[in-house]
Amino acid sequence: xxxxxxxxxxxxxxxxxxxxxxxxxxxxxxxxxxxxxxxxxxxxxxxxxxxxxxxxxxxxxxxxxxxxxxxxxxxxxxxxxxxxxxxxxxxxxxxxxxxxxxxxxxxxxxxxxxxxxxxxxxxxxxxxxxxxxxxxxxxxxxxxxxxxxxxxxxxxxxxxxxxxxxxxxxxxxxxxxxxxxxxxxxxxxxxxxxxxxxxxxxxxxxxxxxxxxxxxxxxxxxxxxxxxxxxxxxxxxxxxxxxxxxxxxxxxxxxxxxxxxxxxxxxxxxxxxxxxxxxxxxxxxxxxxxxxxxxxxxxxxxxxxxxxxxxxxxxxxxxxxxxxxxxxxxxxxxxxxxxxxxxxxxxxxxxxxxxxxxxxxxxxxxxxxxxxxxxxxxxxxxxxxxxxxxxxxxxx
Length: 396
What we know:
Blueprint: H1 2-6, E1 10-18, E2 24-33, E3 40-50, H2 53-62, H3 70-94, E4 104-115, E5 128-132, H4 135-142, E6 146-148, H5 151-156, H6 165-173, E7 180-185, E8 188-194, E9 204-210, H7 213-222, H8 234-237, H9 243-249, H10 253-256, H11 265-268, H12 270-282, H13 287-310, E10 318-322, H14 329-338, E11 343-346, H15 357-370, H16 378-381, E12 391-393
Parallel strand pairs: 1-4, 4-6, 7-10, 10-11
Antiparallel strand pairs: 1-2, 2-3, 4-5, 6-12, 7-8, 8-9
């Protein structure tokens, strides 16, 4: 089966991604040619399957120590497998294709817990990660081979299991002339630094901190769940940033920790957003000011990361933004004001739709798994060596 896949010149791969925003499943139908350094991709179609309000609520419970339990983890693993299969089937159908034409599905899954380093207080809380959305369920429902569970292999060779996107960022966005930063702003914001003329070993990456996670949750709490995000950054545009509140937040040790580093909902999730809102309320801020300040936290943490960890050593000309944050005009304006020497662009300018990029990335990672090619960058994840990430589930 792998031999017949490898021997095809072009493959149609469905990449599946659900991020830390817990907003739904992204499905990208991608035409992939080549592998490794010769990879080229064409986005054929993009489809989004939003999570219902109930699913979002249960996933938030799943991602907390206080409200999760083993039965919920077990059940949601299969439930999300069904939803990932549903997204893949819908993406293929809406692209005007049939499943018989699809060579592979590659799924990131839904991260519910991530421990990037051993917990010194508990020997059983070892460095580890958990993504759910069972691969066999997806394979059996779609009739297509499925690759997934990528992060564990990187952690098994000493990495933090993240960030994984830099490998594909290097393939998609490298330039001989311009140093670039590929900045994804999903629930968590992560950047990939690609020096001009870079080789794989020159690329480095890290999570800069919260992306949309704090903004989205604050908006939801302020509206009693009627709104899940600040559409276009319009609410933030009406407010004034409380600089003291932002500065206090930026004193968190994570922002001063040198890369490689990763973070997630464990640090900047529900408890963090509620504490942020409580502090802002005690300071007497208007609702628009609270949203503006949360947006400024994301922008400042990104810009400060560049000035602290990137720009002193790496000449950069462009920032290429993807993810939901690419649609937040207020956030992009703040970034432009903070980084006037850099050109802020969107990944769509390079043929990769802002919402589809991470799903496209996992199509690339799955393709390289099938070719037996190491599909992570050790410098980005902190791994001891390159490794082939992924596991294969068959439909028969």
